[in-house]
Every structure is written in C-alpha cells, then in structure tokens.
User: What shape does this take?
Amino acid sequence: MNKQFFVLLTLLTLISQNLISQNFKFGKVSKEEIEEKYHPLDSSTNAAILYKSENVTFNYTQSEGFSQVKEVSVRIKIYNKEGLNWATEKVYLYKSKSGNDEKIKGIKGYTYNLVKGKINKSKLKSDGIFTEQSSEIFDLTSFTLPNANEGSVIEYQYMVKSPFLQIDDINLQYTIPLNKIDVSVATPQFYKYNRRFNSKAFFTPNISESKKNRKASITQRGESSVSLLNTGGGQVGSGSSIVNREFEYNDNVISISEVNIPSLKAESFGGNLNNYRAKISLELEARLAREGYVEKSFASTWEGVSKTIYESEKFGGQLRKSSFYKEELESHLNGVEDVFQKVFLTEAFVKSRVKWNGNYGKYSENGIRTAYQDGAGNVADINLLLVSMLKSQGINASPVLISTRNNGVPLFPTRKGFNYVICLVEHDGKILLMDATEPYSINNVLPERVINWQGRVITEDGQSRWIDVSPDIKSKKTTMLNVQIQDDFVVKGKVRESYTSNLALDYRKRYTNLSSEDHIKLIENNKGNIEVSELNFENAKDLIKPVKVTYNYILEDGVDEIADKLYFSPLLFLTKRENPFKLEDRIYPIDFRTTTQNSTIVNILLPEGYSVESLPESSAMDFGEGNVKFSYIMKENGKYLSLKVNFEINNPIIAAEDYKNFKAFYSKVLEKNAEQIVLVKAQP
Assistant: This one.
C-alpha cells in the first residue's frame, strides 16, 4: 500500500472515531474545539462546520392539516478573520397569497471564546435578529452571533414552521469542510416524494430508509369523518355525538449521516460552484389514497412552472401596462421604421430611464410603472418594461426566464429554478437576447451572470420552450505591439488593442468609469518595470463598435544583455508568466464561459549593430480535435522581425477528465510564448 495513502487513511479513521465520540449536543462545546488552530484535514480553510443537523417532519392538526417543521442546529469553528462571515446566518421564508407564511421560531445562538483559560459564552439577543422583506415571495431573517473572533466557536439553532408541502433542497456540502452532518426527512405515507442528488457533485451520500409509526387525532360527529389528507383542515360534521379518534399512519424516513465531507473549492475557470454542490432535492410528486393509488398529482413540468409564473400579476400582468410610457416612447422612436433600429433605441431608452438596483428576481419588485417613475428597479422591473415597450410597438418580444450562474442548475422543475428574466426579440429569422440591467451590453451580448444553462421563453399564447443563452458570436481580442530596442536596451513602443462582443463588455465594465490614471495603473500592474503614457480609450459608450485602446510604453526590464548578446521574449509583457491551472487533479470542468479568439501581432525593429542569432521556431498545435487551437508564426524580414500568435477557444467547456491533458497543452503554450529571441552584436 502507498505510504502516503496509508497515513491519510489512518488519519481519517482516527478523526472519524473522534467525531463519533464527540458531544454535539447543543451547548456542549468543548475547550479543545475552541483551542483548535487549524482544520486537521484542510489547514488552508478559514472556518469549518463542526456539526450540522437538519430534521424535517410533518405534523398533523385538524385545523391546519399537515404542516412542515424544519429544525436546524449548526456548530462552526472560525479559524481566522476571513472566516468571520460564517458568524452570520440568513434564512429565507416563503410567503403565501393567503397570508399563511413560513415562520421562524426558537432562534438560539451562542459564541464561545476562551478567556483566561476558561470558556466564555456570549448569547445572541433578540435585538440582534432582523427580519425584512426580500421579495414578493420571500422574507429574510438574519442574525450575527455576538463577539465572534478568530478562534471562536459559534453555535445556533432554529425551527421553521411551514404550511407548504414542498421541501427545500438540503445542502450536504459547503465552501468550508463539514466534519459531521445528520439529516432526517420524514414524510407522511399519503404523499410521494421523488428524491434526486446533484449528478455533477463528486460526493454522493449514503442513505438509509425506514418507517416510523405516527398517530393523529381528529374529531368526528356521528359517522362522518375527516380525511387526514385535508391539509387545509376540516370542519366537524353534523351528528348526534362527538367522538375523538386516533388514526395511525407511517412516515417514510430517509436519513443521512456522514463525516468529513470536503469543501467545495474554487478552481481557475471553474464556473459556478453551486452547480457541483452535493445536495438532495425532494419533489412532491403526488398525494396518495390509502390504497396506494394516486389521488392527485403535484409533479411539475417546466411548461407548468412557466405558465404559473407568467400568470402572476407581477410577471405577465406587467406586460399589459403601457399608458404611462407610451407618449415618451413614441417621441423617442419618432420616424424610425426599421424593426432592429427600434429594438436598439428602445433598449437604450430603458437603460437611460431606469437603473438596476442590484436585486435579482423573476417577479417585478414594485411594478414597471413605479420603476419607470422612480428611475430604479430590480431585474424584472427593467426587463419586463423592455418587453412591454417592444410589444407596444408591434415587435415580437417575449420574456425569458433564467437561472443565473450563482443560482445553479435546478434538479427538477420548480419556480425556484428561475431567479432572473431577460428579453427576447424574434424577427425576420433572427433572435436577439437583451438584458437592459447591464449598461454596456448589446443584443446577444449578455453579462456573465446570465450565461448559464438555458432560458425558458414564454410567448403571449402561454406556450414556453427552451432557448440557448450561450453567446453565438466569438469574442475577439486583437493586439498589435510595436517594439524598438534603444541603445541602453530600454524597450519603447506602442500597443493597439481591439475588443469585441463579451470581451468588449468586460473591458467596458472594468475601465469605463475609471480615471485615466487608474486605468493606466491597472494596465501597468504585473507587467514588470513598465511606464504607460498617452492612453486613448475609444468607443467606451458606443456599444455597437469594438472597444479600442492604444498607449505608448517604456519597458526597462524587457531585454537581458549577456556577453554582447541580447535575450528577450518577443511578446514582452503581453505573455502570461504563470499557469493558472496548478492542481494535479481537477474535480470540476474548466469553464471559459464563451468562445474567444486572442490574436497578437508583434513588429520588432532590430537595434543598430545587432543581427539575429536564433529565433523561436514557428509551430501550431491544438487540443481536443480543434476545441482549442494555438499557432505561433515567427518571421525575419531584413531589419524587422514579425510574430503572429493566435489562441482560439472553440469549445468553452473542458471536461474534468481531460484536465491533465489540457494542463499539459496549456503549459506548452506558455512555454512557447516565453521563448526568447537571441540577437548578437556585430563584430567591429
């Protein structure tokens, strides 16, 4: 057996045995837990979940029917300042149209510190608990544990009572290690739940199943009866006598108990970690009669989910409103006949009138009329306003429901699967996707947060379908570098850059609102001893045109002189010095987000009195049958040298199993880009 593997196995065994014997009862924090300086299996982590339990049950009362109760208890160790954000907990509570909302109860919390060698306990007080309206369908309760510091152990517990039969996803993995987790979900035999695990997660828990006998009491008058399945409660029927009866039924119980669950770790170009989180999702499929057959189906489809969302007054209802903007929009579009020009001008009009307040949401927050009047709104306010305006002009526009990158990919159809909405226009065989929350986006150039999974188009007749929201236009960066080596071997020259599509969007977002001085500082960053001057940034706000950037530079450490020879890389400061792919193995795929082409042309004027001794050889290579291509073409022409380098990503997703091969490929690219030209001084 491999020695390192044996040591790791032994360590895991010892830790697991220690966890089993450890007391995780609420309030029983040990001195050893507070004294622990770093995590035994992950010394780099800022915090760790020492223990978490999550128990879901359904209790029956005749007045309310079945109501869900979720009990959560968490103990966390904070190792350093970066881990202090784990001292804040946020709980989202669903609201219903009837006012029978989810409620949080029994919040308790403590922070444990060592003071003069003794455990000091700080209690979470009621004035440290806050509740606010988060959206149309959520309230948010949040609290921060008091006196949390480096080395503290915090502990909290709470209960959520819910009138809903739907069960929230249960996360089994976090961005910090999870030492031990216990999960129990007990559902009445009258309801069938489908369970699914995230197929993209590298960790899948073991599940045990059992049945638990339960009893419920109902009141009957005479021979009349009240069904346990009446989740809205029942009224006592007429009759001569009142009888209290107990009914027995079973809970179907699934249990998970795991130890040493590794953290989700960010990897270079890893996309959204939520897509790879281990979790269990439970979908309410059906209500069953006592004989076992389906009495009512609850199973959702994406068509049904889309229709339900569209029928909301805060979604589809907003698209019927137009009187408040009609006059101003007509004036703005006066004389414009071309449909695509109308689309462009309407989107620009919305951007100029309503600014994004930073809130996501598929439902309008305050209504498109209020957003238009106040000049601010959430995602739905802005993009539903855009759809409404376009439709008012007879343009075939539709809303598109989106699950953003930070929302992950839903495991089954659910309204929670969507948290964003954009606009679609279809005309003359062309498709335009727009997000008017982003000042620097244009048609079919969406912000990164939106480029995830697919979008669900909902048309006016209530039909819905999937649409790919990935960019269909390759983003291009073109760089021209002029190089002149001075007598003192300082390099001077000029750089011209051009950016299109999503690369242009990214550049505008980063640099448009910076001063010229700050822009220059960011260009100079990590480029050696360089001085940039005469910066010119074109088309910052002319979104139709490519971004163009030019500047002069002086580089003092670009050339090495050794024994009458000059050594330098022709790419100078433009080449990456470090491979971002450092891990030996990779769990998640590489996600470059979009297809891109990065082309660089270098023109070098040979210094007086020097000739070429050696040049890097021209070469070309590709990865994955053309998914990624690289070419390097070096030429000599009298007093000039020219280099053309092209790096092209034609498929932005590299599978995890191909990681080692891609890492080796990328290393070769970096090595090639770092190769040096050697010039020799002519003999007198």
